[in-house]
Amino acid sequence: MIPAVIEAVSKADVVVVGPGLGMTGAMPKFVKELIPKLKVPFLLDADALNALSGEATVLQGAAAPCILTPIRGDGAADEGKPSNRSRCRGSTPPGTWRKRNGSR
Question: Are 21 and 51 in contact (CB under 8 A)?
Fold first, then answer.
């Protein structure tokens, strides 16, 4: 399944991983195996963060820049650190994306 996903997103500008994935069956394992294989920037939200609960070090193996969008209750958000963003290779400090892209 991962090779098919990688091929499908290979021409994307950015990939969002998480919303609606669910946490049943092999989904947490899928997310952990997908992260190091993504070659385009990606955003982790919702169930993707829950899949990383207790294992946020998986982000250190990311080959592409990533952004985390944790809220209280998301697994990676609740590991007691002010920001897990620093664990992502090439991550963007808060506000930088806005400045770089002219958004307000």
Answer: yes
pTM exceeding 0.90: no
Give the mean pLDDT of the chain: 77
Structural domain count of the chain: 1
CB 20 within 8 A of CB 47: yes
| CA-atom Rg of the chain in angstroms | 13
Domain boundaries, position 41: 2-93
Element (H, E) at 17: strand 15-17
Q: Residue 30 domain-assigned?
A: yes
Evaluate whether 27 touches 2 at the Cβ level (below 8 Å): no
Domain-located, residue 60: yes
